[in-house]
Input
Amino acid sequence: MHMADALLSPAVGAGFWAGTLGAITYCSKKLKENTDEKIIPLMGVLGAFIFAAQMINFTIPGTGSSGHIGGGMLLSILLGHYAAFLVIASVLTIQALFFADGGLLALGSNIWNIGIYPCFIAYPLIYRTVVNSNKTSRTIIIASVLSVIAALELGAFSVALQTKLSGITELPFGTFLIVMLTIHLPIGIVEGIITAGVVNYIKTIRPDIIEGAGEVRPLSGGISFKKIVISFAALAVLTGGVFSLIASSRPDGLEWSIEQIYGKAELPDKRNPITKKLSEIQKRIAIMPDYNFPAKDKPAAGESASGLLGGIMVLVLIFFMGMVIKIIKKGRQKP
Amino acid sequence: MTFDTEYFNIGYLDSLSYKDTFVHRLDPRVKLLVSFIFILCVVSFPRHEITGLMPFFIYPAFLLAAGDIPLNAIAKKIIFVSPFAVLIGIFNPLFDRDVIAAFYGIQITGGWLSFFSILVKFILTVSAMLLLVAVTSFPGLCESLERLRLPKAFVIQLLFLYRYLFVLLEEALRMMRAREARSFDGKGRDIKTFIKFISVLLIRTLERAERIYQAMLSRGFKGEIRMNRRYKPGIRDLLFTMISIAMFYAFRKYDIVNLVGNTLGGPLR
Output
């Protein structure tokens, strides 16, 4: 799911842009160091492929609704993760510019959410570990499903985190997070199956492509099991820290989400907390129907009669300015 | 949106960007910079602000008028992408029910104010970005990115992707048309078929990449792609930047709307 400019604060948007730019620079450097030039046209055309593939819908079994693929993991498998990250970043950039998916400020966050997790976490740590040297179609299915789910869930977590840190919406962090994680679980399974299906199909027709991808660009020095455990531990501590930091400001949100995670894990139940929360609010309002809350923030500037009038006037002025420019341009074209 | 309309939409924005007007001739770096500052100013407003955002409509309005861009095309796109912002924003009126303003006896809660604030910010930021693309050619944008020191590998990737985007979309379009012509009632859209469909498209893509690489080699490609630079910033670029940034700063810093409302509204009351 794409973040939008309107839901981001400048600090959060800029922060994630910095991270994304860093990753782009790093990948470009890595690519320059140890790949052959053949990859340049391949990356461009594969980006276009992902773009086209995302626009082809398929029906999601059981629901009748349709979905499309993200493609981050497929690209990583085909190209190696450095090149894959650049390709995803470029696809998202063009989608942001031409389809207005997200926005200029949110683009940094979107590349982060959709690109970093599959390319830098799920592919090197999960996919490569599971597939390793034994490339049977079964291990490929297991590896794809696991890694795509991990990448999507991390991305979903990241969206919830960015929304929370920006503080533009009132949505409780816990509720939003659970909804996001729940939505992305079936999506992850389906995309994992599709990714594995494509990889296996390609492997039967053009085995050189899949074989080559694994061997030409190994992760620098190969990664040991110890490294993986350490990075996972670091990641867990980091997420836990951030999680509790945010949750402390909304204690019931955290309690509630933990109850959700460790309690029942059935889909229909996920809705309950929201309705519970809503009825809670409703109750509060029903008891004190005419209660006037004191201003929480500073009162919004100019929410008065003159503010409204001024706002309308400004819009009218801008409209006339636009008309005048158009008329002048037309006048110039005629003679 | 169906595949066809999406495909034609990209082409449409692309064709708009090759017009020849004052804003089209500006240096892409200038437009990129001004648009980015515009978006930063807009999103930096506190979450209950609505009226203070109104003066910012001048920037998209100026680009629309001066760039000769049809309003319809931009408005349609904005409406089409709005669901996510609306979906997330609509929770604000539910969770924040504190009345923080009253207007002629109607009590307005903070939630509704922040919801409308999100909508206004959304319209402003999305229109600014679409208009940036509508008045700047994509190769021009890439040139500006390269001159702003973005890694060359990434810029070249963008250029390549853009170049082959239309080719591959047409390839996919043909395959989808073939699928539709041979199936009824939404058949052939299940995951099993989809996997094969995508795989075939992927193999065609890979084979195309090999042909492209050979074509590049035979034209003297040695691992380095040179980009030509066409834009030279001039006096009008400088003026455009300075005036826009000064205006955004004034709109952000001073309460223009109340000022206008008080001076123009005085005689009316």
User: Anything to note?
Assistant: Chain B has two domains: 3-145+229-258, 151-218. Chain B has a mean pLDDT of 85. Strands of chain B lie at 99-103, 106-109. The first strand of chain B starts at residue 99 and ends at 103.
